[in-house]
């Protein structure tokens, strides 16, 4: 098996955020687990501005629940920081609009990536956006 690096972890987070169903999430999670990559995914939605804190909280809670991170300050902060970075990348498209989508989280050793997939709604003219954040923590 080839070494796993930050690109692989980022790819895993993006793929988790793009899953269509819980079944697809479970299959992908099992495949990544065999590679030593821990993953989690969680849905989100609502008014963008009101949702920013909820999205960050959901990321941290999902990462802890799925065993992606330990319940320590550094790990929680890394997921929160990577989530905020990912959100900031989609902010120009989403500001003032309703959003819905999924958050994907992946970790391998000291690499943590968070991807946020957004469907941005304006009447029937939906836009899509993906943001990605990465942090390094001691494993």
Largest sheet: 4 strands, antiparallel
SSE ordering: HHEHHEEE
Stretches where pLDDT falls below 50 for ≥5 residues? none
Q: In order across it, which strands form the biggest sheet?
A: 1-2-3-4
Q: For this structure, what is the CATH class? A: Alpha Beta
Shape: globular
Which fold name fills CATH's third level, the topology? Answer: Hut operon positive regulatory protein HutP
CATH architecture: 3-Layer(aba) Sandwich
Mean pLDDT rating: 93
Pfam family, one: HutP
Subunit structure: Homohexamer.
Function: Antiterminator that binds to cis-acting regulatory sequences on the mRNA in the presence of histidine, thereby suppressing transcription termination and activating the hut operon for histidine utilization.
GO molecular function, one term: RNA binding
What does this structure look like?
With 139 residues, this protein is of the alpha+beta class. Helix content is 47%, strand content 30%. It has a single domain (6-136), classed as Hut operon regulatory protein HutP (Hut operon positive regulatory protein HutP). It has helices at 6-17, 22-34, 48-65, 73-94; strands spanning 38-47, 98-108, 111-121, 127-136. It has a 4-stranded antiparallel β-sheet, with helices on both faces. A hairpin with a 5-residue loop joins β3 (111-121) and β4. α3 runs antiparallel to α4. The two termini are 20 Å apart. Belongs to the HutP family. Antiterminator that binds to cis-acting regulatory sequences on the mRNA in the presence of histidine, thereby suppressing transcription termination and activating the hut operon for histidine utilization. It holds the Pfam family HutP. This is Hut operon positive regulatory protein.
């Amino acid at each position: 098996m080839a070494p796993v690096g930050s690109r692989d972890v980022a790819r895993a987070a993006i793929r988790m955020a793009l899953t269509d169903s819980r079944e697809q999430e479970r299959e992908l999670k099992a495949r990544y687990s065999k590679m030593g990559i821990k993953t989690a995914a969680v849905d989100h939605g609502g008014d963008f501005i009101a949702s920013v804190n909820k999205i960050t909280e959901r990321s941290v809670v999902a990462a802890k629940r799925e065993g992606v991170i330990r319940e320590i300050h550094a790990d929680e902060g890394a997921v929160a920081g990577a989530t905020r970075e990912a959100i900031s990348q989609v902010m120009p498209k989403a500001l003032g609009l309703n959003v819905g989508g999924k958050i994907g989280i992946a970790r391998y050793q000291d690499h943590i990536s968070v991807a946020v997939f957004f469907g941005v709604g304006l009447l029937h003219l939906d836009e899509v956006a993906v943001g990605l954040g990465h942090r390094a923590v001691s494993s």
